[in-house]
Amino acid sequence: MGNLGKQTISFPNKPYIISAYSLGGKKESEGPLRDWFDDCLRDDIYGEATWEKAESKMLKTAVTETVRRSGKGLDEVGAMLSGDLLNQLMSSSFMARDMRIPFLGMYGACSTMTESLIMGSVLVDGRYSNNVIIGASSHYCTAERQFRMPLEHGNQRPPSAQWTATAAGTMMISSESTNEDIDVIVESATIGKVIDAGIKSANKMGSAMTPAAVDTLLNHLEDTNRNLDYYDIVLTGDLGFTGREIMKDLLQDAGLDKKAIDERYDDCGAMIYKPEQDVHSGGSGCGCSASTFAGYVYKKMKRGEIKRALIMSTGALLSTISPFQGESIPGIAHAVSLQSRPKN
Amino acid sequence: MGNLGKQTISFPNKPYIISAYSLGGKKESEGPLRDWFDDCLRDDIYGEATWEKAESKMLKTAVTETVRRSGKGLDEVGAMLSGDLLNQLMSSSFMARDMRIPFLGMYGACSTMTESLIMGSVLVDGRYSNNVIIGASSHYCTAERQFRMPLEHGNQRPPSAQWTATAAGTMMISSESTNEDIDVIVESATIGKVIDAGIKSANKMGSAMTPAAVDTLLNHLEDTNRNLDYYDIVLTGDLGFTGREIMKDLLQDAGLDKKAIDERYDDCGAMIYKPEQDVHSGGSGCGCSASTFAGYVYKKMKRGEIKRALIMSTGALLSTISPFQGESIPGIAHAVSLQSRPKN
Q1: B303-to-A341, B106, B184, B187 alpha-carbon distances in Å
Q2: What letter does residue A173 receive in the DSSP assignment?
Q3: Torsion angles phi and psi, residue B69, rounded to 5
Q4: What is the residue-wise DSSP string for A325-340?
Q5: Exposure of A181 by Cβ count < 10 A (0-12 exposed, 13-18 middle, 19+ buried)?
Q6: Dist CA A323 CA A107 (whole Å)
Q7: Is residue A237 a contact partner of residue A114, using CB atoms and an 8 Å limit?
Q8: For residue B238, which of B69, B344, B108 has the smallest C-alpha distance?
């Protein structure tokens, strides 16, 4: 039975993540995670005519490389689950057109990576499919002009604003292990609820998403009867520098130990850029956590340097028109527990 | 094992659809399916300040009624999977904010209803959740102004254009049956591939989606080793009057029997309006197939008037900007096999 608790499902068959690919943009190649990407773009346009087509091509590169590294043929992949920030999931839909793999579009704003990972793991764990590819992407230029201002406008950003990462991350989930020394498995997952803290500024997305991240994390720990120190590392998606500090405060308020938090908690949006990179409150976008999980986290787990990771992509579910209708920003966060296991 | 064939998964535990709700708009209440809706709006605004909020409220009404009819408490619902046509799934996201149920956003344009139904059935069949609610919605006024022109513009539409239905449909999928005489179960499903026939006009969406619908249907029949006459009824989502005729032609070209097609195949977009309603090529929108499946199909199955139904929502995966970048319209279709079973 996969039903662990109120919000948490377990994966009794322990689906394997057998390959992954992490692609960054130029700015990301200059940040602290530079050595963890599999590749980075030299410029924002990636040889395409538009930024949207460039983002779609990034996802296609990541999917193609993940399939190649898995050793599986395209016809062995039962489904592909992917999403992005663009209206109607343009990056994912147009990527899927070229892949001829059964496709399911996912949307959870910046929470899309763990949403896709959860549903992909369910398909494999439940034996509905032997191999499923999952992924997510974002691009600074496509997101900025869709959600905020034309780039040419050169508008100023407040210190709490975040920088949408130009990045993509993909993983192949499989029912069968590889011949490598260490397996990375999907152990359990907590599906998040939509929580709205009443914040209305799209320049304060970290703050808007944090209550949802706290709720999902606390529910995960309660459902699994675990303490925070069960995990070597706990990462949120993209709360950024501002949201990360709010998250720590709220977790302490909820009774979690400060030392336990400080030793293992961090945020992809705060990890992907240096403050000197003029990104204000750090990174955001589906690709931020997607590339960090598919790069930094996955590679560290394959090396055995991380044994238990709780990864939580966080999403701000505002729309391009909801702020104009006076709406605040609903937040969501999904958590996935990954474990690395030496074969020995 | 749930893996039936290349693209088709079966549900060995036969999840039950234990309740459903179908909500139409005013125009839909004047069409041929009027008696199959559970309720219809008196006007487009539904007591809200904007059409977007009206659409979100429609989905909330449908979800709330489906939960009530199921006899389950909100805290017994493990997950809610929903989507719509609005950028960032505004209708679904803002509905989910009020429901406090773990939420997963789905996007497959007008294919969203069967996408949600497939993933919801996987969660229940695999015993990851005992009760899952799924749904989709659309609204003529929100879709028209997002995808085409401001309504106030009063622009003319070519004969091949479709009318986005103002409608919502929701279902509760459960691992346990009810005490009613006839069960409706989810038997198998085929996840569709993205197929692009090169059509570039958003006024020819039926034609753009038809090749994907043909591909999914033929793959479903091949994977399940069935003929078309296995089903009492085969319904596509919203190819409309134009697309329905193209579908019939293409199926005949593929070798299917004309009589078998004519006797059981129809399209929700061609069923939901009368040609005299000035809807040109018929209905479209996530809500078109969602409300037809949750109303007409579900109720007929509960009465035993349909025993085996293959329902296929079809999606046109264009974005609000892809046509301006010279892109054609990728199509997708997902098929779900439903069966009604008398308890004896």
Answers
A1: 52, 30, 10, 18
A2: E
A3: -65, -25
A4: GT---EEEEEEEEEEE
A5: exposed
A6: 19
A7: yes
A8: B108
pTM score: 0.97
Alpha-carbon distance of B163 to B157, in angstroms, equals 10
Task: Report residue A9 as tokens.
Answer: 């499902």
Q: Which of B104, B141, B186, B218 to mutate to test the interface with A (most CBs of A within 10 A)?
A: B104
pLDDT at A1: 44
Q: What six digits make up the tokens of A296?
A: 């930094």
A228-274 pLDDT tens trace: 999 999 999 999 999 999 999 999 999 999 999 999 999 999 999 99
Q: Alpha helix locations (H) across chain A? A: 51-70, 90-97, 112-125, 140-147, 205-224, 240-253, 258-264, 268-271, 286-292, 298-302
**Which helix (H) or strand (E) covers residue A51, if one does?**
helix A51-70
The radius of gyration of chain B from alpha carbons, rounded to an integer in Å, stands at 18
Left if phi > 0, otherwise alpha if psi is -120 to 50, otherwise beta: which for B255? left
d(C-alpha B45, C-alpha B244), whole Å: 31
pLDDT < 50 positions in chain A: 1
ipTM greater than cut 0.90: yes
Per-residue pLDDT, B1: 44
Taking only residues 46 to 105 of chain A, the set having a beta carbon closer than 8 angstroms to any beta carbon of chain B reads 49-50, 52-53, 75, 78-79, 83, 86-90, 93-94, 96-97, 99-105
- What count of residues does chain B have? 344
Place of tokens 């505004």: B90
